[in-house]
Amino acid sequence: MAFKLHKVCAKGLASEELPLKYLDLVALAGAADIVPLIDENRILVNEGLNQVNLNPRPGIEALIEMADFKQVN
User: Fold this and answer.
1) pTM of the model
2) What 8-state DSSP symbol labels residue 38?
3) Looking at per-residue confidence, does 13 or 47 come out higher?
4) What are the respective helix, strand and coil percentages of the chain, to the nearest 5?
5) The predicted structure's pLDDT at residue 20
6) C-beta separation of 53 from 60 below 8 A
């Protein structure tokens, strides 16, 4: 998974938390790839969906509006 590679590469750098800001994209990629939602994948997708619900990127927000989705808790 590209996210895990990015996280390993960022380890030890000044901004180790940088990959966490991309969890919303990780969640979207997980859904698009139809990955099994077990173990670490489940945690990453859950955290990413939380980010989407709290503060969606403009592009993701547009997709949500076009699909007429409602927030699910």
Assistant:
1) 0.71
2) -
3) 47
4) 70, 0, 30
5) 79
6) no
